[in-house]
Sequence to fold (463 residues):
Amino acid sequence: MKSLTDPSQALAAGLAKIRTEFHVPDGFPPNVMATAEAAARRVPDQHAHRTAMPFVTLDPASSTDLDQAFSIEASGSDLLLHYAIADVAWFAEDGGAVDQEAWNRGETLYLPDGKAGLYPPVIAEGAASLLPDGPRPAIVFTVRVAEDGAVKLDGAERAIIKSRAKLAYDSVQPSDLPAGFAELSQRMAANEERRGASRVDPPEQEVEKLADGSFRLSFRPLLESEQDNAALSLAANMAIADAMLAHKTGLFRVMSGPDASQVQRLRNAAQALGLPWPAAIGLRDYQRTLDPADPKQAALMLEIRRAGNGASYQPYQEGVVPWHEAMAATYAHATAPLRRLADRYVVRCALAIANGQPVPQAVTDAFARLPKVMGRSGARASQINHAAIDLAEAVMLQGREGQTFKAVVTDITDHGVRVQLADMAVVANVKASGLSQGDALTLKLVAADPDRRSVVFEPAAAG
Fold:
C-alpha cells in the first residue's frame, strides 16, 4: 500500500481527462433533475408499514447510496433473511425523464475523485437510499435459508422500513449485527463448497481518495465483513433467480468456465509459481484453498479470473437453464438497483411473481434490451477503472526514471511478460523473453508519463 505524491496535481488533471475521454456525465440535465425532485416528494401509498422491524445496513463508511438493509430471524432450524432493497421503481416511472436517463447510463460509474450516479442524488442518496435518517420505501424479500444453505424465496412486499444503523465494513463489531448474521454467512459458504462454486475474490488494484484529499494506490483484499455481507446478497440473488426460472421469465447473470486447455495453462502457471496443485484436485476445489495475502497465490488468483470467459446477462429462454459457472448456480442481479439498471427490473419481476401477479409487460420488454445496455456500460466502467489505475501508477512513479525495482513475472504475454512490482501495487507489461511465470527479476524504469497514463520498464542490466 503506497501513498501517491502528486504535488503538480497530475492525478486531478488526469482524472478530468479520463472523464472527458470516456464521456462520464457531469451532473444531470435540468429536466431529469426536475423530474427526480418531484418524484422524491412522492408519498408511498402502496407499501405496508414495517418500521418496527430491526433493519440495519452494512456498506463502505463513505457510501450514501444504500441499496440494501437486512434483518434476520430464526424459523425453527431455518433462518429468515428479510432483505430490503431500495424501491427505485417507485421514483422512476417507465418512460419518464429519470428512466430514460438511466437507460442512457446503465450503471453508476466510479472514479477515485467521485462517481457519476445512475440516478440523481436526490433519489440515489436521498429519497430511495436506505439511510437511517428516516423511513424509506423498499421491496422486502423474505429468503428462507436452510441449515444446509439452500435458499428459497418465501415472499416479497412493498414496505416502509427504517434502518436502525448505518454500519461500516471497517468498523462493524459482531454485537452491531443481527443474531444469525454469522450463521447465515457460514451456511451460504458451506453450501457454496458443497455445490462446487468457484467464486474467488482476488485482491484488486484500487485508487482511493483519503480524507485529507490525497490518494492511495493499493492491492485491497475483501474484509471479512464484506465477505459475510456478500453472502446475504448471494442468498437473495439465488432465491430470486430460482423463482424467476420456475416461472419461465427473468434476466439472469451467466458465465461459462475455463475450458480444458485453459485449466492446463493454469496448472502450468501454478507450477511456475511454485504452488503445488495435485492432479486429483480440480480447479474449483483448488482455487478455494488459495490465500490472497500471499503474493504468488494472489497472482494465480488473478490468472484464474482472467482465464474465465466473462459474465453477461441473458433473458429467460425456453429449454435453457441459465448458469453461472463461478456460482455453480442459477443466479441473478437484484440487490443493487441504485447502481445497476438491470436490478430494478429483476426486482419488479420477483415482486410480481411472489405475489401471484403477472410480470409487467414493460419489465418483460426490458429484459430483451438490457443485455446489450448492461454490456456496454460494464465495458465502459471497466475501461475507466483501468485508466484510473494506469494514471495512478504513472503519477506514483514519475520522477523515478532510471531507478530499479524488484518484480515477479505473473503472466506471459504476446509481446513479453506481465509483472508485479515487489514493493508497490503496480502491474506492468515488459518486453522481455526467456522468462517464466514466477521468475524474479530487476527492472529499470524508463519512463512514467501521467499524461499518457503509461509506464515503461525494461530489464536492468546484470551487474
The chain has a mean pLDDT of 90.
